Amino acid sequence: MPRRSRRPRTTLLLLVLAAVTIITLDARGGLHVVTSGVRSVASDAFTPIRSGVNAVVEPIGSFLAGSVHYGAVREQNQKLQAEIDQLKMQQAGAAQQEQALKQLSALLNLPYLGNLQTVPAEVTDFGTSDFAATVDLDVGRADGVQLNMPVVGLGGLVGLVVEVSHHTATVRLITDGQSAVGTVYGPAPGSLAVLNGTGPGKPLSADLVPSNTPLTPGEVFTTSGLPGALFPPGIPVATVTSAHTGTTANQESVSLQPKADLAHLRYVSVVLWGPST
Amino acid sequence: MTARDAARLTLVVFGFVVVQETLMLDLRIGGVHPDIMVLLPIVAGIIGGPSRGATIGFGTGLVSDLFLPTPFGLSALVGCLVGFAVGLATVALDRTAWWLAPAVALAGSAVYELAYGALGSVLGQPQMLHVALARIVVVVAVTNAVLAWPAMRVMSWGMTQSSTEGMPTSDIGVGAAR
Q1: Of A202, A240, A200, A235, nearest to A220 (Cα)?
Q2: Largest Cα–Cα distance in chain B?
Q3: Cα–Cα distance for residue pair A269/A255, rounded to 1 Å
Q4: So where are chain B's domains?
Q5: For residue A249, what pLDDT is reported?
Q6: Are residues B55 and A15, on separate chains, in Cβ contact within 8 Å?
């Protein structure tokens, strides 16, 4: 009898040890190449399945989403209804496609990127996990995208490529709690600060801003481009929304809003740039 | 476990992954999408008991980790713990009772998400506690409670040839579907 009751616990112990070993090896880099490769293969293998199934079940998903968001959909419906009359007055045609074209054209001519090469991409998913702020793109290694490449949107920096497969890539948004971006602010050459993500949909916070630094709402922080930095210099990252210094604090408490509209991303550009280039 | 059992179980897991990565990712409730992969260790624990719940929770967790940006192995760790706990907690209960699967799915999913955030935070991802955790727990727990019966039916088909620590899986599956 005692042997029988011990068996499940032994099984659990072995499985927990195995899981902790995998997590540790992955975090320390020893296994990361393997896990990253396996994830990439899984993503590549699953992309056509996902596309195929989506084509069949998307109407069902839209119906479910519509029923869950009934209130919001109804309100949106009323607004859209009001806009229909206005739209009828305008030239008929594919307004949505025109807008998408405008967005893509604008993305190809972002002034702050200079001569850096980019790959335009469409956002296909707003994150597979509720515990991380990520988006999935429809471009991958086949398009020249590599790990740790910066991603920008119409307003500014969007994030960093953290997973890449043959035809897809996952981008960690600058709002993710693991994100840290080296920036400069103020008059040239600028003071250094690190902007940290605090979670999906939440404002960014700034580190290394000395107490009583005069910051005004709307002031823009741009990427620093210091040697070894993950981002090229001069990309707008966020604007100050509030700043204050506590009585005993040696740093200013700064809250910032990302320049890019991360909640409504549709098209982005992957910058073909790495710290060594 | 025979090759036929393994094939059936693989098919069930694959089906869950397809549904999760297509329908469930499109469905967002309060900004949170349901996570039916969490149901796998829970229903496996109810049907197969602690040992099988832990083993299947570990395996399905690794599969989930392939599609998540969070640390690789974290879902496997939480999956085996939850599968084991569910098996242990339900082994003495009447597992054919109609209310058991939804109730355990509700509680088990809530525990899973809380443990996921807490363990992720302990393992070097502190931001995992700075998300809308309460909303995630509620959405995932409630949707999984609603989907518990069909999940039990499907999983009992996937584990049909396996003996359990308590009673035949077929009885539990049929009981759950009543």
Answers
A1: A240
A2: 44
A3: 26
A4: 3-177
A5: 74
A6: yes
Q: At what angle do helices B3-19 and B148-158 cross, to 10 degrees?
A: 150
Q: What is the ipTM of this complex?
A: 0.86
In this structure, what DSSP letter does residue A245 have? -
Q: Phi and psi at residue B125, in whole multiples of 5°?
A: -125, 65
Q: Are A121 and A129 in contact (CB under 8 A)?
A: no
Q: Helix or strand or coil: residue A181?
A: strand
Q: Which of A8, A18, A131 is facing B50, going by the closest CB pair?
A: A8
Give strand pairing partners of A120.
A269
Extract the tokens encoding A168: 């897809």
Q: Could you tell me if A116 and A273 are in contact, meaning their C-beta atoms sit under 8 angstroms apart?
A: yes
Tens digit of pLDDT for each residue in B22-33?
888 878 888 899
Coil, helix or strand at residue A83:
helix
197-236 of A, contacting B, C-beta below 8 A: 197-202
| Residue A25, CA distances (Å) to A40, A124, A164, A223, B75 in order | 18, 30, 20, 32, 15
pTM to 2 decimal places: 0.76
3-state secondary structure of B68: coil
Supply B178's token pair.
């009543």
In the chain, the amino acid numbered A138 is D
User: CA-CA distance, A175 to A197, in Å (whole number)?
Assistant: 4
Distance in angstroms (rounded) separating the CA atoms of residues A193 and A208: 5
User: For residue A75, what are the CA distances in angstroms to A66, A83, A138, B29?
Assistant: 12, 13, 31, 17
Residues from chain A contacting residue B55 (CB–CB below 8 Å): 11, 15
Q: Which domains does chain A have, with CATH numbers?
A: 2-68 (no CATH), 116-277 (2.40.10.340)
Residue A252 belongs to what H/E stretch? none
Please name the residues in contact with A199: beta carbons below 8 A apart, sequence gap of 6 or more: A133, A175, A176, A177, B127, B130, B131
Give the pLDDT confidence score for residue A36 in this predicted structure. Answer: 81
Mutate to test the interface with B, among A129, A162, A196, A264 (most CBs of B within 10 A): A129
